[in-house]
């Protein structure tokens, strides 16, 4: 009887172990349990149960590993400088007002701050070939905008265009002188004449 009891216990233990192994194999096959891809797995020969083939492994992409690019200190400083310059230019332009007195004040401000005025007659003025704009404000009646003439050497090194703040209307001052290439220009309007020497902005 004692021998039979031991035998039956041993059989039950073996059956339990076999059942657990079978359940574990089924779970691995179904993906419920992690497969053993590092232990007792060989790259050659028949793969053992629980070993994941190399082709089934996934590796995160380099872009996922890097994440979003961070700005360098130099890029941040340049952006701050550009924002500061834009703020200074915006602060230099007076607010737009629509009353007669406010408009007169604004016109007066534009005359006083223009780069080329009636006082510039017969003078030689400097400019840089970087696209910077120089405001021109002459007398609307005596020297109308339509009578302005620009002669340059070499040709097409500069141009005359309407300014950003053209609230006075078309064909009225101020207009802008824009230089993009080194050279020289003569701006004339009847008996008004100004020579503009354009140098390279790197000099």
| Strand fraction | 15-25%
**SSE pattern, N- to C-terminal:** HHHHEEEEEEE
Proportion in helices: 25-40%
Low-confidence stretches: 1-6, 25-39, 54-58
What topology, given as strand order, has the largest sheet? 1-7-6-3
Q: What's the story with the biggest beta sheet?
A: 4 strands, mixed
Assembly level: single chain
State the helix count.
4
Structure in a nutshell:
The protein has 203 residues and is α+β, with helices and mostly antiparallel strands. It is built from four helices and seven strands.
Layout of secondary structure:
Layout: H1 2-30, H2 62-66, H3 73-92, H4 100-112, E1 124-128, E2 133-136, E3 149-153, E4 158-161, E5 175-179, E6 183-189, E7 192-199
Parallel strand pairs: 1-7
Antiparallel strand pairs: 2-5, 3-6, 4-5, 6-7
Kindly describe this structure.
- The protein is α+β, with helices and mostly antiparallel strands and 203 residues long.
- The protein has a domain of 100 residues: Sandwich (Immunoglobulin-like), CATH 2.60.40.
- 33% of the residues lie in helices and 19% in strands.
- The strands form 2 sheets. A 4-stranded mixed β-sheet has the order 1-7-6-3, with no helix packed on it. Strands 2-5-4 form a 3-stranded antiparallel β-sheet, with no helix packed on it.
- A hairpin with a 2-residue loop joins strand 6 and strand 7.
- The longest helix is centred in the first third of the chain and has 29 residues.
- The termini are far apart.
